[in-house]
Structure formats: structure tokens, C-alpha cells
Amino acid sequence: MVNLIENIKVNSRIFVLSGAGLDAESNIKTFRASEGLWEGHDVYSVAHPDGWAKDRDLVNSFYNERRRHLLSSSVKPNDAHYALAELDKYFEVNIITQNISDLQNRAGSKSVIQMHGSLLEVFCENDRSHVYKWEKDLTTKDLCVECGGSQRVNVVWFSEPVLHLEKIQKLAASSDLFVSIGTSNQVFPANSLVTMFKQMNKPTVELNLEKTVNSELFDYGIYDKPATKSVVELKDSLIKNILEN
Ligand code: APR
């Protein structure tokens, strides 16, 4: 790995793509571990506009359960989240996450972009710009305080466009290193970012518990240990490299 990161100097821009595997050791279930069910639910009934149209109460109660769990004492940032936050001291790190938890923010990272939205926000269906922090249960009775419109959790569902895509692509184009952590790389457009870095001839690293559909596209990968070990290992190598050069 050393020769791969030798050109990563102080203040180099590092682009991190993270997925559910980064939150797994914080007691948050991943998506594809349970045969396409998410916490026992068919994802299309709780993570697709059709499911919302069919049963708003079911969808709200699903996310209310996720939100309560996220805010419970059993869920907190893990060593991988903190290792990524520590990199802010030496590099310009942008963490583009597919996760809807706030664990990376809680760990203290300066730049976190949630491309699939946030469990702790709701938005107004009348006016998408009406977005609010939301930590309690959401029901269909909770209407937008600005315009009275109905509200839904600010999570990107299947068939919907991801958030901040233009900003993400601009950051990718100007970054020096791409690191993919804890994602199966099955969902577009997140899974197309590694190709952008390869076209720019920039180094790419994948940290995951197992090989993914994109693994052969990466210059280097660590697959035999969990994120709380592999991310710390990468962090230590990056810092050692700049302190010694
Ligand atoms: N350390 C590292 N990797 C892990 C760990 C761990 N402790 N635990 C699981 N993993 C890996 C799994 O091997 C898997 O490849 O994390 C990956 C998680 O993959 P998914 O469950 O598919 O989650 P993710 O890639 O984030 O899904 C992307 O799909 O369902 C949609 O919108 C949803 O954001 C989600 C998107």
C-alpha cells in the first residue's frame, strides 16, 4: 500500500465513500446481510415512493424505529468513524456517505455529505426546500410549520435521485485518493465513482469485509478484517507516510 499513498501529502484531498459496513460495528444492521430484507421488511415497501403511497403509517413507523435505535444508548460512533475524523488533522477529507445515520458527524468529521439523506431530517412534500432536523417519531399529523404541507423522512428511496450529486462529482474530480469503506458497491451512482478515479489515474483503495462487484477496479484492498481495524490501519499508514517524508 505504501507506494500507492506515497504521493498523498499534507492537505491532499481524500475522497471517502462509505456504506452500511462502516456503521455495522455500531450496532446498525447492513442492508444486504438479510436476503434483501431491511429489518424484516421488503425494501420496496419502506424505501420506495410506491410503498409510501400505499401505506404512510407503515413507512413512518419503520423509520421511527430506525431513528429511535440510532438515538439510543446502544448506538455510537466506532473506531473507524473516529479514525476518519482524525484524518481531518492532516488532510482535506470529504466523506460521502450512503448511510442515513449521523455517526460520522458525531465522530467529529468536518465534511460529511449524505447522498442518501438523513434519518434525522424530514422534508415538506409541498416544498422540498423546507427541510427540518427531526429526532422524534414522525406521523402524518406532523405538518410543515412553514406551509402546512405533509412531511416525510429525508431519505432517498429507490427510483429517486441521490442528493448533492453535482457537488460530489466536483469533489471527486479534484481529489487525490479514493477510499471505499463498507459498501457492497451495488447501488448507482455511488458505485461508479471508482471508475472516475481510475480515469484520472488517481489511487483507489477498498476496505470491506468481503470482495465486491467492483473489487478488481481498485488498486488495493483490505478484505480480511472489519472496518474498525482496516480503517485504523489505513489512517496509520497515511499519517506515517507524511510524518516520514
Ligand atoms: N467492516 C467492513 N465491512 C463490512 C462490515 C464491517 N464490520 N460489515 C459488513 N461489511 C460490508 C459487507 O460485506 C457489505 O459488502 O459492508 C457492505 C454493506 O453492503 P450493503 O449492506 O449493500 O450496504 P450499502 O453498500 O451501504 O448499500 C448501499 O443500498 O439499500 C440501499 O440506500 C441503501 O445506502 C444503501 C445502499
Any key phrases for this structure?
binds adenosine-5-diphosphoribose; 3-stranded antiparallel beta sheet; 6-stranded parallel beta sheet; 32% helix
Structural account:
The protein is α/β, with parallel strands linked by helices. It has helices spanning 2-5, 20-23, 43-46, 49-54, 56-70, 79-86, 103-106, 165-173, 193-199, 227-244; strands at residues 13-18, 37-38, 41-42, 92-97, 112-114, 117-124, 131-133, 151-155, 177-181, 204-207, 220-222. A six-stranded parallel β-sheet has the order 5-4-1-9-10-11. Helix 6 (79-86) runs parallel beside helix 10. The radius of gyration is 18 Å and the shape is elongated. The mean pLDDT is 95. Adenosine-5-diphosphoribose binds next to helix 2.
Trace the largest sheet across and list its strands: 5-4-1-9-10-11
Apparent shape: elongated
Termini separation (Å)? 15 Å
Rg computed from alpha carbons, rounded to a whole number of angstroms: 18 Å
Number of strands: 11
Q: Give the proportion of residues in helices.
A: 25-40%
Ligands bound to this protein structure: adenosine-5-diphosphoribose
Order of helices and strands: HEHEEHHHHEHEEEEHEHEEH
Q: Which regions contain 5 or more consecutive residues with pLDDT less than 50?
A: none
Mean pLDDT: 95
